[in-house]
Amino acid sequence: MKAFGDDDTIFEDIDVLNPNEQTYQPTDLPERADELDQIHSSLRPATMGSTPLNVLVYGQSGQGKTVSIMLKTTQLQEYADEVDMDLTVVDVPCKGVDNSYHALTHLYKELREKQLGPGEELPSGYQKKALLNMVLEELESIGGTIIIVLDEIDAIGDDDYILYELPRSNPEGVRLSIIGITNDLQFRENLDGDVRSSLGEDEVKFDPYDANQLRNILARRAEGALRDTHFRDGVRDYEHLESDVVSDDALPLAAALGAQDTGDAREAIRLFFRAARFADDNGELEITEHHVRDARDFLEQKAIESGIQTLPQQKMMALMSTAWHVSKGEQSTATTPIYTQYKKMCEVEDVTPLSNRRFRDRLNDLSDSNILTKTQGRGRGKQNRYGLAVDVETVVENLPQKNERHGEVAELLRKQVEKHR
Ligand SMILES: Nc1ncnc2c1ncn2[C@@H]1O[C@H](COP(=O)(O)OP(=O)(O)OP(=O)(O)O)[C@@H](O)[C@H]1O
């Protein structure tokens, strides 16, 4: 068994490569200079004794939206402390909330904790209007300039009460600014006109990073995290990176793979971090292209596994009915026999089956998520055929257990796979 402390390591400060926002926040975001300037301009009125503007920040996942807002609000807070300005920044992560009421309860809790310290409960049992008034009272009791950051605000769905009311609320003695952040572009499009014009007084758009920008981002994170890794001539970009522990092709490959999908910095960092850990855990002193490829396979497999584990009921049944045919040795199966199998499984689970047409939509969704393969039927009346895009073993290993929901059918499928192994 390995003993802690004995291992040789390529890491100097492993946290810098950790993609988790709580573990490490970069303070240098040259790729977002324009966006940071726009945010600066929206917040600057606070330094003149006026009200900072409301801002709607939008762009796909992993584009540095949260980290940019954190950077600018922290910078403003530092300035406020220096000049004795009364400023409070309240962060409300909305991930997991499902409506405005729920978001307001979290805001209320955060406002209370700003004044009383951690440990406050989420309020419950109040009418929406009463809860809003409680929030306004807390804002008035804090006073001064208050910036509320609502991250992942799309979680409230089409219930936009909080976004309508807060910017209009005018609490006494408070200069209030709301910053809403979303990676759901449709959410922004669908916002009610009034909400959009008040919340989106200013709008800041984050376009996806390209491979070149991802290389520079990875280079800076690698320089902070890894041993014997430095920038030449003090220029902090990929071209000036020199490292004894990263091979020439590893970092550009991670950036290229990251750019392939959506230019998501979190994904690129996660990939390079995993590659670095693979190398380090094996006691190897160089991160190579092989580690990056292994990391990609590993993360893809993980994503598929958690995708299967969290499938909603009908998609889970659609997957199991397709897997049933595959387990009997069929590469792919036409829609009708899969649908017949699905109806049998619904009977076992006491689930109302979908119509044939809606069932086919589920099969197509699974093929869009790369869990099923789809071969288009040719000619009149020819049906599409579906198979598994992943091992049947991966499917059965990630299905519910016997005593869980759908566990009975899952168990039958596991036995069938066992039988034909
Ligand atoms: N320009 C950059 N330089 C260094 N690290 C970056 C940069 N942009 C993003 N990151 C890192 O990528 C990760 C994701 O960033 P962030 O959470 O700000 O993205 P986001 O746009 O808010 O994504 P989401 O919409 O998914 O919440 C974080 O670990 C962050 O530190």
Describe the structure.
The structure is a single chain. With 421 residues, the chain is α/β, with parallel strands linked by helices. It has three domains: 51-206, P-loop containing nucleotide triphosphate hydrolases (Rossmann fold); 210-307, Helicase, Ruva Protein, domain 3 (Orthogonal Bundle); 311-420, Winged helix-like DNA-binding domain superfamily/Winged helix DNA-binding domain (Arc Repressor Mutant, subunit A). Helices cover 49% and strands 12% of the residues. The protein has 16 helices and ten strands. It has helices at 33-43, 65-83, 100-116, 128-142, 161-165, 185-190, 193-199, 211-225, 250-261, 265-281, 289-309, 313-327, 335-349, 356-368, 392-397, 407-420; strands at residues 55-59, 87-93, 144-151, 174-182, 202-206, 229-231, 241-243, 333-334, 372-375, 385-388. It has a five-stranded parallel sheet with strand order 2-3-4-1-5, with helices on both faces. β3 (144-151), α5 (161-165) and β4 (174-182) form a beta-alpha-beta unit. α8 (211-225) packs across α9 and α8 (211-225) packs across α10 (265-281). The longest helix is centred in the C-terminal third of the chain and has 21 residues, at 289-309. It is globular, with a radius of gyration of 26 Å. It binds adenosine-5'-triphosphate (ATP). Residues 19, 21, 26, 29, 31-32, 61-67, 183, 217, 265-266, 269 line the site of adenosine-5'-triphosphate.
